[in-house]
Design a protein that fits this description.
mainly alpha, 2 domains, 21 helices, 0% strand, transmembrane, MurJ, Lipid_II_flippase_MurJ/MviN
Length: 541
């Protein structure tokens, strides 16, 4: 048992490291990409149109459950791998992939044909003919990219099921690099405008998410058969598990659609500012939340398949608790040094993104960051349900939260503009995560009881979250007070002032956060400190 746990921890650790590095680099490239967008388009109506053009392609991606392909397909594929029946595994892959090819091609064709009337649903606040023409043109460029994202997601799932994470982890980097290249071409030829970025999206989807995992699967002797059987039990299972994701409108996905829809009614640049703030927040979410979720999921699935439900819950809950320690620390930095980060990325080396834009974006970022723990935790918590074969419950909960919160988005947008939308977003995701975490504990307790076991001694996923949140609030309060003095001592937006202010504020905030968390008895912080101490002692010796 001890050897198996050690092996599981090592597997998750290696996978987490691969995905952590990949997602970190991807987020850095994402910031470079957004910086180029900021320099090229600024906080303008054209930037609003570019960001809005992703709503329809993202909706198609969502309908085909592309974002959950790895979650849904890995248990199907792992079942055959564990039984030593690789042939049947690739047969299941082929039937599902071919079904996606047919349905995805039809969906893309229809959306491209009806892009104009659909554009008025995507962003009803854009009413000028030229704006609608530009939005339709951008959507028609980006829509075909979803075909390669969807198939690439299935190919990546097949590799991850075999604990081969390198190429799937590299794919987002190639994707972002192509968008950057497209943006640089667009900057060189100003008449292209946002279209340069859109063509980069299409090229990147082919070269990154599709071509790289395809190459990896071919190296593992992939057998993709030209077979399509609507009677396939594996296709039925895929559809059964995917159906709630396809037809549900979980707040995790729909939040961004609602914000884009509502922000189209605001002044030019508001949608772009919301998007820039969200992009910056996604950096730590990806590193600490997504990496742990992706890396731990195959192991959790195997434990559940083997009947070790208590151990699976332990792996899941420990991953969430450790992640929250890190993600709330990142939230402290983004809140108290948000202006410096925003101006450094978008305003420092460009003329179209002003200091006023940076100030408004940093305010939006601070309000979005209220929900940063929820955004990171949901990517891990939801995988616990999927490992148990339960995709309906998280989708139904997410859909219920969506419909309950839509009036809040509308009211706060009308009263407080973009900042109100940021508050609505944070409120919605936190409500979803706390409800989902409570339901997941109950579900694992039920599964454990059915196997004659109990979770009575297992720490909860959100154990200590209130104390950790209090530590973050204290750190933010101290940091904001320090900020008022630093702005007087180091005024202005020069490179030195921005870098020094940002570094001092972030380091001070992290120091206060760590001290407060330690004083409040956050055991995970002690565990992290002990590991760092052992690593440093090992290096000295």
């Amino acid at each position: 048992m001890a050897n198996r746990r050690s092996s599981q921890a090592r597997t998750i650790g290696i996978a987490s490291a691969i995905w952590g590095v990949s997602i970190f680099l991807s987020r850095i490239l994402g910031l470079v990409r957004e910086q180029i967008i900021g320099r090229t388009l600024g906080a303008s109506r054209q930037a609003d149109l570019y960001f809005a053009s992703f709503t329809l392609p993202d909706f198609l991606n969502y309908l085909l459950a592309a974002g959950a392909l790895s979650i849904v397909f890995i248990p199907i594929f792992v079942k055959y791998l564990e039984a030593g029946d690789t042939k049947r595994g690739w047969e299941a892959f082929s039937v599902i992939a071919n079904f996606i090819v047919v349905v995805g091609s039809l969906g893309i064709a229809l959306m491209m044909i009806f892009a104009r009337p659909l554009a008025t649903l995507v962003a009803p606040g854009f009413t000028e003919a030229a704006e609608i023409d530009e939005l339709v043109r951008l959507m028609r460029i980006i829509l075909p990219a979803q075909f390669f994202h969807i198939l690439g997601g299935l190919l990546s799932a097949a590799l991850m099921a075999q604990d081969r994470h390198a190429l799937p982890a590299l794919a987002p980097l190639i994707y972002s690099a192509c968008i950057i290249l497209g943006g640089l071409v667009g900057a060189y030829y100003p008449e292209l405008g946002a279209e340069g970025f859109a063509w980069g999206v299409l090229a990147g989807s082919i070269l990154g998410p599709f071509a790289l995992p395809l190459f990896g699967c071919l190296r593992t002797h992939m057998r993709w058969h030209a077979a399509l059987s609507l009677r396939s039990a594996d296709l039925h299972r895929y559809l059964l598990l995917s159906l709630p994701i396809m037809i549900g409108f979980s707040i995790v996905v729909v939040d961004e659609w609602i914000i884009k829809n509502q922000a189209s009614f605001l002044a030019a640049g508001a949608l772009a500012q919301l998007q820039y703030g969200r992009t910056l927040m996604k950096v730590p979410i990806g590193i600490f939340g997504m990496a742990l979720g992706v890396a731990s999921y195959p192991t959790i699935s195997r434990l559940v398949a083997a009947g070790d439900v208590v151990e699976a819950y332990g792996v899941l809950s420990r991953a969430i608790r450790l992640m929250l320690v890190a993600i709330l620390a990142a939230g402290v930095c983004l809140t108290i040094a948000g202006y410096e980060a925003v101006y450094l990325i978008w305003g420092m080396f460009g003329s179209r993104f002003t200091a006023a834009d940076a100030l408004e974006t940093s305010r939006i970022l601070a309000l979005l960051t209220i929900g940063i723990g929820g955004w990171a935790a949901q990517s891990v918590i939801s995988r616990g349900f999927y490992a148990l074969g339960s995709t309906w419950l998280p989708t139904l909960v997410g859909t219920a939260v969506t419909f309950a919160m839509i009036p809040l988005y509308v009211v706060l947008r009308e009263r407080f503009g973009a900042e109100g939308l940021a508050v609505a977003s944070s409120t919605a995701i936190l409500a979803y995560v706390f409800l989902l975490g409570w339901l997941q504990r109950r579900r694992f307790e039920k599964e454990a009881a059915a196997r004659g076991a109990s979770l009575s001694t297992a720490p909860g996923m959100l154990s200590g979250v209130w104390r950790l949140s209090l530590a973050a609030v204290v750190a933010i309060g101290v940091g904001l007070a320090l900020r008022m003095g630093l702005v007087v001592i180091l005024p202005g937006n020069g490179v030195v002032a921005i870098l020094v202010r940002g570094a001092v504020l972030c380091l001070a905030g992290l120091g206060v956060y760590a001290a407060a968390a330690w004083a409040l008895g956050i055991t995970e912080l002690r565990e992290v400190g002990q590991k760092v101490g052992r690593a440093l002692r090992g290096r000295r010796s």
